[in-house]
Amino acid sequence: ETGVTQTPRHLVMGMTNKKSLKCEQHLGHNAMYWYKQSAKKPLELMFVYSLEERVENNSVPSRFSPECPNSSHLFLHLHTLQPEDSALYLCASSLTGRELFFGEGSRLTVL
Amino acid sequence: AQTVTQSQPEMSVQEAETVTLSCTYDTSESNYYLFWYKQPPSRQMILVIRQEAYKQQNATENRFSVNFQKAAKSFSLKISDSQLGDTAMYFCAFMKYNYGGSQGNLIFGKGTKLSVKP
User: How sure is the predictor about A22, in pLDDT bands with cuts at 50, 70 and 90?
Assistant: First the structure.
């Protein structure tokens, strides 16, 4: 039990589908993150929500849309994805200035 | 921009022996944090050890210790008495200190795949 829970663990979707990844943290943290982990590439920060402020990596395509309704929940909405978007998507949370705690990841496959 | 480099894509060690994983980074910041994370085949990224740049003393956590050389921008991880459960990907990571209180980015290296052999 890590305190950061991601669902679903595995997701297969077609290029025209709309789906969402969910993340929930039970640690009382004030920041939440989405990272993308692809084979042979460094982990890439996609979005950060901290103290109601959103910071994003400008290279992330608009087909990825984050939502953070409160400090405990984070979503990543997916629509019209491409096969190259297949990856492990990791959610994390932290207190400001402290280390990140990660979930177990959602393995996404886009057909 | 900050970068983190792990020059060893793969390493192996015999059980009970000691192994050192290398990490170098590049930054113009004076205050920052450095981390080692472990990602076993189960995929969960787990914090191994943390170092604040303003602290001269090297961090230790049980069998894990670091050699932090700020001037050389080097941050290596030493694993003593290696165990089979240490088999995993190990990532070195950098975080800039944010004075304004808002959260910054954790920048990762590409990782080192460590195999502990019986």
Answer: very high
Neighboring chain A residues of B103 at a CB cutoff of 8 Å: 30-31, 48, 50-51, 55, 94, 96-97
Q: What is the pLDDT of residues B48-96, one digit of tens each?
A: 999 999 888 999 999 999 999 999 999 999 999 999 999 999 999 999 8
Looking up tokens 């019986």, which residue turns up?
A: B118
Count CA atoms closer than 13 A to B108's CA, side-chain side: 24
Rounded CA-CA distance B111/A104 in Å is 17
Q: Are B56 and B64 in contact (CB under 8 A)?
A: no
Pairwise CA distance, residues A60 & A62, whole Å: 7
Q: Is B4 on the interface with A (CB under 8 A)?
A: yes
- Going by the DSSP 8-state scheme, the letter that residue B59 receives in this structure is P
